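Customer escalation, tier 2.

The customer says the design service returned an amino acid string that "doesn't look like it belongs to this structure." They asked us to rerun it and document both sides in this ticket. The original structure tokens are below, unchanged.
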């Protein structure tokens, strides 16, 4: 296996970085794009190493990539239409979800520029929501499969944590925005991660795209993003993942019911594994390798 640092530029001028692993020998014709979760980055989770190996051993290129939501607060080089350059400060604190389409689109184009025409999209946690939303938005015919690692039901988790304070948190965030303080952090009592008031509303206010995995139906009854999936799907969750309600068996069954237009769905539970699969890195790679070898994607 060989690897290289790489970079791409989004349609709105942001420079993003990643790491591409490839098989020794000829250039692969199929590739995988891995997207990290909220305030993550392309190298943080240990399972990425093992999963990269599973794909490369199967003849795929594997690109683990940063988005504009990398880390909590990050500076991004940005080239404006007139050719001048500046730095934009974004990161998970200031990220707006729907802009993920720009990031994923740039990385998909990068893989294609390297000769990889068939692409599997893989996302972890919030990254699973992002790759699902990209596919819904673009209906990209070059996407051959979708891997959802620990997709999170953020609304259910947040309501479970806050109870009656959920509406209070929304009110506080709205007031902050109205007062011109939308870039300030939402009080820590309302959310585990440091995020701005604007980003908190982007995640949890009415009309949020984060309801796409709200399968406990605390805030949503329709799941158009899931019903739009028309490629094979592998969904993996750990049995001690805290970011959805109910049992992992029930959660996977609810996902399967909503991805009714996929030609093939496989749901896997890794017993004892947490949200980030810490200490279960070889097992998640084994499950993905098994799925690849089943021949549902190529």
């Amino acid at each position: 296996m060989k690897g290289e640092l790489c970079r791409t530029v989004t349609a709105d001028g942001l420079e993003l970085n990643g790491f591409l692993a490839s098989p020794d020998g000829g250039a692969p014709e199929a590739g995988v794009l891995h997207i990290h979760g909220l305030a993550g980055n392309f190298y943080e989770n240990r399972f990425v190493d093992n999963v990269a190996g599973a794909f490369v051993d199967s003849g795929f290129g594997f690109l683990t990539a940063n988005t504009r939501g990398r880390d909590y607060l990050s500076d991004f080089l940005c080239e404006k239409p007139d050719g001048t350059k500046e730095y934009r400060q974004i990161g998970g604190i200031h990220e707006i979800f729907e802009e993920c389409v720009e990031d994923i689109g740039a990385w998909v184009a990068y893989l294609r520029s390297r000769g990889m025409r068939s692409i599997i999209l893989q996302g972890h946690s919030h990254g699973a929501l992002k790759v699902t939303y990209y596919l819904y938005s673009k209906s990209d015919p070059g996407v051959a499969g979708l891997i959802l690692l620990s997709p999170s039901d953020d609304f259910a988790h947040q309501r479970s944590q806050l109870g009656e304070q959920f509406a209070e948190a929304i009110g506080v965030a709205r007031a902050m925005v109205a007062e011109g303080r939308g870039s300030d952090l939402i009080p820590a009592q309302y959310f585990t991660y440091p995020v701005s008031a604007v980003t908190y509303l982007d995640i949890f206010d009415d009309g949020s795209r984060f309801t796409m995995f709200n399968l406990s139906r605390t805030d949503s009854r329709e799941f158009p993003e899931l019903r739009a999936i028309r490629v094979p799907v592998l969904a993996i969750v750990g049995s001690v993942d805290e970011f959805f309600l109910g049992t992992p068996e029930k959660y996977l069954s609810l996902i399967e019911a909503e991805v009714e237009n996929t030609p093939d769905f496989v749901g896997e539970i890794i017993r004892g594994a947490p949200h980030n699969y810490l200490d279960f890195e070889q097992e998640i790679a084994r499950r993905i390798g098994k799925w690849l070898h089943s021949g549902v994607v190529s």
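Tier 2 assessment: The sequence is consistent with the input. Residues 133 and 272 are 29 Å apart (CA to CA). Strands lie at 2-9, 15-22, 30-35, 61-65, 75-79, 85-89, 118-124, 143-149, 233-238, 265-270. Sent an explanation to the customer and offered a walkthrough call.
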